[in-house]
Specification:
The protein has about 425 residues and is an alpha/beta fold. The protein has 2 domains: about 5-145, no CATH class; about 160-415, UDP N-Acetylglucosamine Acyltransferase, domain 1 (3 Solenoid). The chain contains 9 helices and 35 strands. It has a 9-stranded mixed beta sheet with strand order 7-8-11-14-17-20-23-28-31. Strands 3-2-1-4-6-5 form a 6-stranded mixed beta sheet. Helix 7 (about 375-385) runs antiparallel to helix 8 (about 395-405). The relative contact order is 0.10.
């Protein structure tokens, strides 16, 4: 028995979140889908976008990345899962029920009109490898005639759904963390792993959910923590910060100011004053002092997001920004409600529109120019060195690949973008 995780064509709609990571590595409420699937205990293989494979081979050692080595031996996968599944305890419970069915016949699980899972499809690894460089939908189409299995699996199709899933899943996900027995209760509703440190005069509120602080994390003095909150390993929360209401902080992050209902991926810095609310930040981002985002319209109406594929009605009243990996803001940058910021961009002043990848964005000053990948490779090297991370050829190649696949974002701005 084995599990195959696959990226379908809809993964592009999750950009910029998925520009620098595979969809099964998106953090939601402290877990990724790789974490959730790993609890099942079966061998895992992955069919990912071609330009992501070298990175996955090195960063996901527990996943057999198809297209980088010889094919797995033995029969094909027992369970085929869409990488866009919400990484929640509910998803894990559903997968357990699927695998333990008394009638193990093949079938397909849908989420609305999208394939969420295929059970015992009878595919060989050779068949899967044959479509790895093309469209996985070819195999999915062959499974459409399978009986429909009635199991609740949810997919994330747009970036704002990642933020919504983080808020809806964080209670159950943190409860699952506590059930692992890794954490010691420091006070009512506050749990820490050995090695975590909390400064003096930290105010904690846990009526709405627990506060979990992982190993080697540090919380500075005079800080407000209002659960549910997860603080990842090696995270540093600076003094006078206010972290509250469904916040998930990745490992090795530096956080200050006010953060509410947001996901911050590993190695990102938001260590100065300023507000971040109902937002998603990728990895290796730095927000300058005073950077704030708006997460509520002046009309108090729901937020409509504008994506390359068109507008999406979110039905969310509170929704901030989505920022791709390696992007940065200057001091006192103001980001308007519901803006999407690509990877590897630098922002100055007010961000009043979506920002394409690989640009210097200063529309307030009448300027927006292309940022070459060579500049970002040099920046990446300096950033990695600060965190004692070795820059690898696959990291540098990722910059070139992302620049290539995001060209259409810059093309949409036409004459407004100076080269």
């Amino acid at each position: 028995m084995s599990i195959l995780l696959y990226e379908d064509s809809m993964v592009s709609q999750l950009a910029p979140i998925t520009s620098a990571r595979v969809a099964c590595s998106i953090t939601v409420a402290s877990y990724t889908l790789l974490d959730v699937v790993g609890w099942i205990g079966l061998p895992i293989a992955g069919s990912f976008r071609k330009y992501m494979r070298g990175l996955c081979e090195q960063d996901l050692p527990n996943v057999r990345t198809l297209g980088t080595e010889s094919l797995p031996t033995g029969p094909g996968p027992t369970l085929v899962l869409n990488c866009r599944l919400v990484p929640s305890v509910e998803t894990f419970s559903t997968l357990q029920k699927i695998l333990s069915r008394p009638d193990p016949a093949a079938g397909i699980v849908w989420d609305r009109d999208q394939v969420a899972a295929v059970v015992d499809p009878g595919w060989t690894w050779e068949q899967i490898a044959a479509v790895a460089d093309g469209s996985f939908e070819q195999l999915l189409l062959s499974a459409h005639d399978l009986p429909r299995l009635d199991f609740p699996l949810r997919l994330m199709s747009f970036p704002h759904e990642v933020i919504a899933a983080n808020m809806s899943c964080i209670g159950a996900n943190l409860e699952h963390r506590l059930n692992t027995g890794r954490y010691q209760q420091l006070s009512d509703g506050v749990f820490v792993e050995p090695g975590a440190k909390i400064g003096e005069y930290v105010l904690t509120e846990t009526a709405q959910g627990p506060i979990i602080i992982d190993s080697q994390a540090y919380v500075g003095p005079y800080t407000l923590l209002r659960g549910p909150i997860y603080v990842g390993p090696g995270c540093k929360i600076l003094e006078h910060a206010a972290i509250k209401d469904a916040v998930s902080l990745g490992h090795t992050t530096k956080i200050g100011g006010e953060v509410e209902a947001s996901v911050v991926e590993p190695f990102t810095n938001k260590q100065h004053h300023g507000f971040l609310g109902h937002s998603y930040l990728g990895s290796w981002i730095n927000l300058g002092a005073g950077t704030c985002n708006s997460d509520l319209k002046n009309t108090y109406g729901t937020v409509n997001m504008e994506y390359p594929c068109g507008k999406a009605a979110t039905e969310m009243q509170f929704l901030g920004c989505v920022m791709g990996d390696y992007s940065k803001t200057a001091i006192n940058t103001g980001i308007f409600t519901g803006k999407v910021i690509g990877v590897c961009s630098m922002m100055y002043g007010f961000v009043t529109s979506n920002v394409p990848s690989f640009v210097n964005y200063a529309r307030l000053f009448g300027q927006m120019t292309t940022l070459p990948p060579e500049v970002m490779i040099a920046t990446q090297k300096r950033m990695f060195a600060r965190r004692k991370v070795q820059q690898r050829p696959c990291d540098m190649q990722l910059m070139h690949d992302m620049y290539r696949i995001t060209q259409h974002e810059r093309d949409r701005f036409g004459d407004a973008l100076g080269f």
